[in-house]
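General statements about sequence and structure are easier to judge against a single worked case. When preparing material for the folding task, we compiled for one chain both its residues and its backbone structure tokens. The amino acid sequence and the backbone structure tokens for this protein are reproduced below:
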Amino acid sequence: MRVSEPLLVHLRRARDLIDREYPEPLDLDALASEAGVSKYHFLRCFAVTYGKTPAVYLAERRIERAQDLLRATNLTVTEVCMLVGYSSLGSFSSKFRDLVGLSPSEYQASFANGAPHIPGCYVFMHGLSDRRGGLNATKFATSEKPTPG
């Protein structure tokens, strides 16, 4: 099966939605709607294009973000679990172990003696995620060009 070029644009939109909104509950209907096709056609085309189903892609994205948080912050495994979109610690831990090869606690412990962690309160107050209302980069950006004057 070959996916047409116009459909690729719509599939990228759906994949970008997963990348932006990974902590939110996303279902096949919402993703297919973003791509503008039926959910069954979307599922087939996404799998052909990206080599994995949307559910697998979403799980991998969530676990990648969890790895970042476990490495760089002092958040608990439960807090990380909730931040990346899982509502069950058991499901999160199981998927984490399947994809990473360690439990979330083992993974976090392996980085415990590295660089100082970002305090969890900072993560909750300011949001490290640039995708869900975190720090607005343009609000804090400085101009590259000097202002005339």
In short: DSSP finds nine helices and no strands in the chain. The radius of gyration is 18 Å.
